[in-house]
Amino acid sequence: MTFAIHGLAVSRGIAIGRAVVVASSRMEVVHYFIRPEQVESEIARARNARNAVIDELRRLQDEMPKDAPAELDALLDVHLMLLQDAALGTAVKNWISERLYNAEWALTTQLEAISRQFDEMEDEYLRERKADLEQVTERILRHMKGMPSPVAAPAALAEASRAGSADQQELPLDAGVDEPLVLVAQDLSPVDMLQFKSRLFAGFITAVGGRTSHTAIVARSMDIPAVVGARAASQLIRQDDWVIIDGNAGVVIVDPSPIILAEYGFRQRQNDLERERLSRLRHTPALTLDGECIELLANIEQPGDGAAAVRAGAVGVGLFRTEFLFMGRGGNLPDEEEQYRAYREAVDGMQGMPVTIRTLDVGADKPLDKAQPKDYYLNPALGLRAIRWSLADPAMFRTQLRAILRAAAHGQIHLLFPMLAHQSEIDQTLAQLRLAQSELDARGAVYGAVKLGAMIEVPAAALMVRTFLRQFDFLSIGTNDLIQYTLAIDRADEAVAHLYDPLHPAVLRLVADVIAEGRAQGKSVCVCGETAGDVGMTRLLLGLGLRSFSMHPAQILAVKQEILRSDTRKLAPWAQQVVQSENPSALMAP
Prior knowledge:
The protein is α/β, with parallel strands linked by helices. The chain has 23 helices and 16 strands. The radius of gyration is 25 Å and the shape is globular.
């Protein structure tokens, strides 16, 4: 009987194939107390298992195929960083020595403690890194028990699935002997995904995960249809079921009828043709029908992500989030030299194109593993975060500024400051920058000139746009936070997430005003939130006068296609009608 499972659409496209269902990797952990004389041997057991996993991941990185997505290597780096976090090792050791927990109990206890910190994070991308921590812990536990990964033999699973069953349903595609397969799992780690040959699977389905989970990131980078967060998928889908993944709608259709298969087979062929057409646009200039040149930039998280941005046709990096250089280190922050190398790698990877580096955007929702009082996290979105955090620790802030300035000697760097809202914050920020330059001058260090920009992500900043433009070279609208703060909506809270609306009149008017004022003063305004990569918003933003978009590299070509089909002169009057409307959604078809 045909039925549908709903999840999150994270990688566009249609996939049709037989299900390869991978059992959940979750392990049962036995809790018991050890004797005092067993403490050292138990600590050694935990340490040896962790070191074995580190060696395994390094070996996988060394043996990684040349055509593997750069995102996989970056995610393995995240796992290695978590494994090598001194705070994790110290905490596990303390649980063993002070509480006399067995090693497995100590490890899972610390996992629960750290997981609570991740749950409190406001940033969706960082909150999803909880899954990485869980997977690292799982691998250590399996080494302790001498157990293989549940996906250690995917080729065998694939071959078994390819053999099919006697009464298999006929697929209205030319599948032949090698029938297409889709992977169904509770979750997938980067290591698990490396163990699969990408050509074996037409798509992925996971029961957990979000739009910024590692499975979603890799699926987008490989251009493979995927649905995540399909809660019941691993229970309801049986081995060898025919499955349709609708990556556009976030729907999984199980045991589809011949009519549904035929319909989705047609859609799949149309998507394949569309993807081929899009790939031809990679080197096409982003020009509107009326000759307006549009800047398409990439958002990146790791220094090595520049290669994927270049391959996608980006003309620069509009947002390099620097948080991951700082997180998961037990409070041992990266020094100037380490940061300089990371920023230079990003600059070198963009082959002379500009790189916009945002200074540290952390806070209670993205902590740096520093102990805080219990009530510190009661309202993290409104607390000490972003530029407020940096100004509260000027030595740390100037270390980052010096590293960025030095990297600017090797290429174009635009320096972006997050969450500014007060003139006093602007004054303090610029003073710290001047002091960092003086410190470099004092020691004779070489550094380059940078353009200065400010994030517009709180209503106060949008309303002060003229003040901001007088003091900065460019502005970048962070729509994710601007929507959240304007509407007082926590988009991570399922009870109110439905109220998170990019088309709310108040949000649109703030965005429109910032863009208009930037154009009036001849300064660049970029949109770097999720709105920039939403093709449904492209024409509206063009009509409002936006000429710079920054998004995930996988979204660039689809947005470029909308740009090539647009005439900004015709869109401008319609865009103003949308902004002034009490119901903008009703006018969104120009």
